[in-house]
Design a protein that fits this description.
This protein is mainly α and 292 residues long. It is built from twelve helices and no strands.
Amino acid sequence: MVVDHLHLLMSLKHYAKKWNESSLKTNILDLDEKVGTAYDVYELRSRLEPVLNDLNEFIDNPPTTLSPIELVELIDEIAQTLRDEMNTSDINFYLSRYNLEFEAEEITSSKRNYVKSILSSTSEEKILKIAQDLGLYSDMAMLDVQQMPEIDNDYIKEYAEKCRIRIQEGDYEGAITSARTLVETVCMHILDISQVEYEKDGKIMKLYRQVSQVLRMDPSLYESDTLRQIASGFFSIIQGLAGLRNDLGDAHGRGGKVYRASKRHAILAVNAAYVVSDYLLDCYHNVVLKFD
């Protein structure tokens, strides 16, 4: 009996570690692993009962993919897209393909509000499907920062972790800022250990140009058109990160038209930063050090 309960507890903890942060995850990981006597078993069972009830509720009613605000924003994006691209009859036909229950109208004063009223009572699953088909939503997964080469710089570790945590906490603008800072920190780290001087003026493109010379990645160094295009692509990614951070991040004050960062923007920026950082570090460890 002791072994069975200990095995159950260890299995619960093993799977809970893979979940996103939640009160259920915390409650499971906080359970005491000391189960050596029958008394310990009964004590554990009394603590397991509410956790297992919560687990059953979690399984029967899994958490939604989007926050309420994100769902409202996505519905509005769908409504605007259909308004701009279709007439009312086309909208009715398009939405009917998803087996939605609604009273079709042939004439409406606002196509946007018409679509929003239909989707307001639609399941999140169907809304996501519509958004995906319209190219408005992609269920992108976070890359694993642990796949990066061994990192001996605490600042790189800090910003790589900040990217992940800020997305988990819903701070998408902060995640974009951290993504840009991650790449900047990786560039400075490579220049530092290569004993190359640089200006700390926050201009990431200048840093990257210096790094590309150190890593022999400057497009002008390649004879192959294909390799030159790939190397140029890294410049485009860096420019995109800087631009996305300025447009959507929290780095500067804002004026004029404001674009609000969403989860997909943040994941795109963070994944791009991870890919660039991973490649630059890998190049340094496996190319530069071997040449030197």
